[in-house]
Structure of DUF2726 domain-containing protein:
Amino acid sequence: MSTPSPLRPVVTAEEQLFARGRWVVQPDRRLSQLVARRPEGVSPNQWNTALRTRCDFVVLDPDTRLPVFAAQFADPAGVDERLDRMLAAVCGAVGLEWVRVVSPILGATTQARRTVEYLLDARAFRDATAFDDAVEPPGPGFRDIVGRLPDGRDGFVNDLSALARAAAVDAYVGRDLADPIIRGLHVTMPDGVAEGWAWVELPEGRHLLERVQIGSHGFDCGVALDRLAEDLAALAVGERLKRLDTTPPVWLSRDDLCRAYDRLQARHPALTSPFFVPL
């Protein structure tokens, strides 16, 4: 006799539901709506605290409506490390994959749904191209596929920041930027959190910096999460560029940017970047 799943079928709202490939996605559900009962090894305090967590998107098996993974988009000010530890305990105990993107802007835009669709496309590619470890990989990974970009150039078609990079060129032509290139870096912290940076140079020595962190519990989409974090940071830069006329961004001087990099490097000494030199 099979053991019943600790996860519960999700009650869906058809007007919110959308499909991507073979999966269906339900926005806006709490963890309490995904888990049937408190699993062994999880304390009542961990359980009661974690259940209040809201999932921005829940990917479901189309037949059973059981959760496959949950995605959350959070503002940096809303990150609670204690809650995150409890969430990790619950997700690990019930076998629920979880991914959280921390960004001050992406969760408030249509890019949140686009990111979830990207994760599903990447997982589908990973599953379709799975190979035995003893066999040579059949070709480039999902992120490394080269093709024709919307602006007519050849490039990485599965780079989430491709349109943002084209927008940066347009902003440079319009003299809103001093340099058309979105630069970036990525790193994985000792606690497993992936962090990506992207920045552009504005006139008068000002810089616009976006940082994205990705935390996960058991989640894999076939694309390295630190590289994905950098792509999302560049995507966030693109969102800021759309709003230059209406919402001027907080900008940094070159010295501010270098000091921020020094703080990051202090947390991850192996980090190197050709774009920074010691102050």
In short: The chain is about 30% helix and 25% strand. The first strand starts at residue 18 and ends at 20. The mean pLDDT is 88.
